[in-house]
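User: Design a sequence. Structure:
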């Protein structure tokens, strides 16, 4: 596959979002351990935003 292949770029985009989800989960876990409610809400909203972006990505890249 050439370096400018759209499928390859799409895979990189998808895995980038997966890494964002993992970081959001760690952020949520950390905020639970410290009892920081504001950070917990921020982590939850960040996780939801990641889910929205992944859902829109999967919806446009079926097949």
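Assistant: Done.
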């Amino acid at each position: 596959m050439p370096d400018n292949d759209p499928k390859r770029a799409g895979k990189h985009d998808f895995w980038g979002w997966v890494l964002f989800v993992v970081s959001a989960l760690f952020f949520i876990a950390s905020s639970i351990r410290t009892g920081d409610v504001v950070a917990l809400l921020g982590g939850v909203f960040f996780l939801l935003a990641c889910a929205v972006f992944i859902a829109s990505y999967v919806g446009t890249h079926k097949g």
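The first helix runs from residue 6 to 34. The mean pLDDT is 88.
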